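Repro:
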Amino acid sequence: MNGRLPEEFRQRTKKYAAGVIRLFVRLAKTQEEAKVLGKQLLRSGTSVAAHVREASRARSKDEFISKLGGALQEADESMLWLELLREECGVSANITVPLEQESSELIAIFTTMIKRTREKQKTES
């Protein structure tokens, strides 16, 4: 499969996962609700990078699309947890908004990559 992702993009999603981990560590001293949401965010946020790694090793365009779709879902879920932490748990916007912005950008990138791969797949058929 020639759908290898640039190392720079793999590093970007790894950096995103690291930011999620740092946020989670900061939540350790907060209310119980924030801790619960933080665990959900930790799982979904780190999964984004894992799916991108898997996509870069995909053996077919279908597998590539599937893995990117997984990354898209996890980024969208992460956005939800970040919004809830800010809106309902009182976590400072200074902490969540940079990750929310990155989530939004990653969602747009994944959506575009999936769309373009599908279009390319159709023209090759």
